[in-house]
Amino acid sequence: MARVYLPPDANTLLSVADHCFRSRSYVNLIVIDKQPQLQWLDMDQAIEHCRKGAGIWEWAGTDDGDRDPDIVRPRIVSSATVTVLEARPHPL
Q1: Is a pLDDT exceeding 60 seen at residue 74?
Q2: What's this model's pTM, rounded to 2 decimal places?
Q3: Where in this chain does the record put each Xylulose 5-phosphate/Fructose 6-phosphate phosphoketolase C-terminal domain (predicted)?
């Protein structure tokens, strides 16, 4: 069985790498660019994000809970994370 991981930041990459190094009987593929990685989540948040497999970053969105999100971004590499965050109507 093969698993593909696309961590969105540095701490998530560390959590994913730890998980992959501990796994057995899997082919693990971690996709990340070669640029220095930003740190969007602290380590505890990154571990929880990886444990759930997906998450909503409340600080990065404009979701008021009354409608579906405008952007659903699966785990993709950090440069795409920056692009999605820049597309928000409100700056960070």
Answers
A1: no
A2: 0.69
A3: 34-87
